Amino acid sequence: MSKRAAIAFIVVALVAAGLGVYFGAWHAESKLPFARAARPKPVPELRFNDAEGRAHTLAEFRGKVVLLNIWATWCEPCREEMPALDRLETKLGGERFHVLPLSVDQ
Fold it and tell me: Which of 34, 36, 39, 44 is deepest in the core (most CB within 10 A)?
């Protein structure tokens, strides 16, 4: 599996899991096609650099709920959703929740 495919799989899995938890709590009898795993599945180690060039891994976020958003500057829908993700981080971000946008091209 290519690195890009692996990252895309992780993003889809995390978003699906997050939506499943959110909608499951929101509406107990939801008919959405998401299913919560019996046990959390490990996420492969992912290394990335922040805007200042410092190296990080997802392990640094252990114990937090992380919305991992993989995006690209050439992706119009990705750029359009950034203000909403920024508002989400401003409203809910903190010790327990973090929006983590990772650009695949910068």
Answer: 34
